[in-house]
Amino acid sequence: MKKFNIKVNGKTYEVEVEELGGTPAVYTAPVAPVAAPATAPAAPASAAPAAPAASGTAGAISVNAPMPGTINAIKVKVGDSVTKGQVLVVLEAMKMENEIMADSDGKVASVAVSQGQTVNTGDVLVTLN
Fold first, then answer.
1. Sign of the alpha-carbon torsion through 111, 113, 116, 122
2. Reduced to 3 states, what is the DSSP secondary structure of residue 60?
3. What pLDDT digit, counting tens, does each position of 77-121 carry?
4. Would you say 65 and 122 are in contact if contact means Cβ atoms under 8 Å apart?
5. What torsion do the CA atoms of 46, 51, 52, 58 make, to the nearest 10 degrees?
6. Predicted confidence band of residue 38 (pLDDT cuts 50, 70, 90)
7. Is the pTM of this model over 0.90?
8. Same domain? 61 vs 121
9. CA–CA distance from 27 to each of 2, 83, 123 (Å)?
10. What integer best gives the mean pLDDT of the chain?
11. Which of 63, 118, 61, 110 is nearest to 91 (CA)?
């Protein structure tokens, strides 16, 4: 058993740590409840980018978001011809930029997102014909 002193918000707590069967277990002394910090007022709804109406008419092939994230760049516009593997959209997720590519050759029928927009898994990004 090892004892440690942990300082949280200016208060010191004594903590005992014991290793059992190779899996560490942590035991702590009872801690007095701490009041939650006051929350900031919610940002006005107008601060979030609004989802735009899709430009163009929907195509037969949908390119969907593989994960939730934010649209950093749109590399195509309605009417562009694209080839399989061409980057259509750059999606930032977990501080990494992910290039969303065309699954097949085609022509961009619609772009359903705008730069800065937040998307969820499965949301339509671009449609192709």
1. negative
2. coil
3. 999 999 999 999 999 998 899 999 999 999 999 999 999 999 999
4. yes
5. -170
6. low
7. no
8. yes
9. 10, 59, 45
10. 79
11. 118
Kind plus residue range of the DSSP H or E element containing 63: strand 61-64
Judgement on whether residues 67 and 109 belong to the same structural domain of the protein:
yes
pLDDT tens, 17-35?
776 665 555 555 565 565 5
The β-bridge partners of 126 are 63, 111
Whether the CA torsion 9, 10, 16, 22 is positive or negative: it is positive
CA angle 48, 53, 54 (to 5 degrees): 125
Is the C-alpha dihedral spanning 78, 100, 82, 75 positive or negative? positive
102 falls within a domain? yes
120 & 65 share domain: yes
Residue 37, in any domain of the structure:
no
Structural domain boundaries, residue 20: 1-32
Strand order in the sheet with 2-8: 2-8, 11-20, 23-28
